[in-house]
Amino acid sequence: MTHASPSPAAVTGIADRLVVADRVHAFAEALDGGDTNAVANAVAIREGRVIAVGARDDLAIHVGNTTVIDEHPGATLVPGLVDGHTHIVFGLELTRGVQLTDLTLEEAQDRIAAAATEAAPGAWVFGWGIDPNIFTGTGFTGRLFDAAAAGHPVFLRMRDAHSAVINSAGIEAIGLTGQETFPDESVVGVDEHGAPTGYLLELAAMDLVLGQIPDESHEELADRLAIVLDGMAASGITGTHVMDFHTGSREVLEILESRGDLPIRLRFSPMVPPGSTREALERIAEVQGLHGRRWRVDGVKFMIDGTVDNGSAWLHEPDCYGQGRRSIWTDTEAYREALRFFAERGIATATHAIGDQGVAFVLDAIESLGEVAGRSAHRIEHIETIPDGTVPRFAQLGVAASMQPIHGTRHTRADRSDNWSVRLGEERASHGWRCRDIRDSGAVLALGSDWPVTPYDPRVMMAESILRYPVARPELAPIQPEQALTVRQALEGYTSHAARAIGAEDEGVIRPGARAAFTVFAADPLATSAQELATIDVVATYVDGAPVLR
Fold first, then answer.
1. Taking the complete model, does pTM exceed 0.90, yes or no?
2. Rounded CA gap, 306 and 295, in Å?
3. For 402-435, how does the pLDDT look when each residue is reduced to its tens digit (9 = 90+)?
4. 340, 300 in Cβ contact below 8 A?
5. In this structure, are strands 546-549 and 295-297 parallel, antiparallel, or unpaired?
6. Buried/exposed 296-327: b ≥16 CB within 10 Å, e otherwise
7. Is the peptide bond before 452 cis (omega within 30 degrees of 0)?
8. Lesser CB count within 10 Å: N end or C end of the chain?
9. Is 520 left (phi over 0), alpha (psi -120 to 50) or beta?
């Protein structure tokens, strides 16, 4: 859905605020073919919109007695950074408990043991961010944490957020039998005897367990969300595309807005569960447009497959374990019908598709919409491995690619020794996270973190999309270095291309009529190295023309 710019009358006259820096990068070339503000160093704002961009002296006609002037000497102002893929409120559930990211099995067991000693008798112990590679020798099983938990039930999420394990005490507390069935391809794992291992694959299986565990209160969640949003603003983020509208999101957001304005803008796209009925689709359509002061529901999110690491990505050929040959939509024709349902109503869609067959199927489905596809924006999330023939189809069909190359830099290795690469094999692994190929094909490429799957700091994210290895691990060989982005491409992925991915003409650029959302860096990011970009200071952010961070 395209968000129209205001009329010229709304963007003239005396400014409420004038923001002055050493330079302004408008990134207008991403939309109109030329950077019309190459020498600009000031932006005039009125009622949350840009009314003029240019040299400070030229903008004097917009300065009156009531105009507030913000000076940022030596700084560079760019369109506000937008993380193209996060899970803000759902992420609070995903990050409940002890962080286990990048730990070995022994280290994870030690942390669970420490948490168990502090837990009340019989209380659940939570952890998140587990590396699936720690189960390589045993298979996915929560029994590995029985001793560490000392009798406590344990719920531990994998880093991909698509699976979890519970231990023997948890299996007993929930009453799992291993015979549970679901409307999609979710699974409760069993051993060779048919007994449940505690492995929970995909959301329906995890929800079966979580539905029997006490939730945190909305007030507690609001307190935690405030910390996350403040941290995002401090890193330069002014908005994010939230790929769900998780249960309790509205209540938590209303609590936060009762305390004051949110520090960033939030665009929520509710999930459409596999196998959704017509009534469920209509309920999701009805919440479109629901909003607060700085949040709104706009668009929907599908998932056509799971992840490579747990064998549920939809692949043309099976992985090395014979897995990955099915969509999580048991009836894939129902996905096509649901996609059309929203497209006909002008509702933007985003579809999680990781495997090569999943990506191809979604592109086919969008193409089959015909003229209906043009009523709203369509995008595909993740796109972890695709062959050469799929790359040009994004630009050809006008489908945006929304990618998180930090998943490749953090979760895979150049020597192909990691679980993701082993499952796919050399050829498919070498076609991973093809950001540069997609961008060079002329397609829109939005970038994001998928927080909490990986950290949200956009400076690090952009740096790693250029370096193709973790900023903190320079000794590691880069992952597919030929897919490295330029600094400008990385910045556009967080600005102009993030806006184009949702069809927003008044976001992601700095020009008259656009939303006044800016990130102010201490130095010019286009003149820095990737390593310097990762640590460049953020001196201010602006949302709706008002300073959030200074």
1. no
2. 28
3. 999 999 998 899 999 999 999 999 999 999 999 9
4. no
5. unpaired
6. ebbbbbbbbbbbbbbbbbbbeeebeeebbebb
7. yes
8. C
9. beta
